[in-house]
Design a protein that fits this description.
Distance between the termini: 53 Å
Helix content: 25-40%
Strand content: 15-25%
Number of helices: 5
Structural class: alpha+beta
Number of strands: 8
Length: 133
């Protein structure tokens, strides 16, 4: 039998396969937040206005977000490559929506956006469709 050489640094975290609902409930996205924090930190240190890019959709720095849940509106803004809500930073619309609803939800349907210098709100799933044309 052959021995397989591995780099122990690459195996520092176990690979888990779970359904997305299990992943939300068990906090598996915490590791993705740590990955995102490295990107956010470098963007903040440079002082540049960085767009938030999610699934190849570009939301320019300063884009406003709003979502309605149980009769209340929740607002956020794109800053330094992330969606920021109440000083918390998110790398996906689903993570941000989950924080509000406390249940897995499609963030693309939950959030509306208003681009800088635009007057109207648009659901981000519609914006996603338009940006791919």
């Amino acid at each position: 039998m052959k021995n397989i050489e591995t780099n122990s640094d690459l195996l520092s975290e176990p690979i888990l396969q779970q359904s997305s609902e299990d992943a939300y409930q068990n906090g598996i996205f915490e590791s993705s937040e740590r990955l995102g924090s490295v990107k956010r930190q470098s963007a903040k240190n440079s002082g540049a206005c960085v767009s938030w890019v999610v699934e190849s959709v570009v939301f320019p720095d300063g884009t406003e977000f709003r979502g309605k849940y149980k009769g209340y509106f929740y607002y956020g803004t794109v800053r330094n490559g992330t969606l920021t809500l109440d000083e918390k930073e998110f790398i996906s619309p689903c993570q941000a929506a989950l924080t509000i609803t406390r249940t897995p939800i499609d963030g693309w349907l939950f959030w509306d956006c208003k681009l800088p210098e635009q007057g109207s709100w648009m659901n981000i799933s519609e914006f996603k469709k338009l940006s791919r044309c």
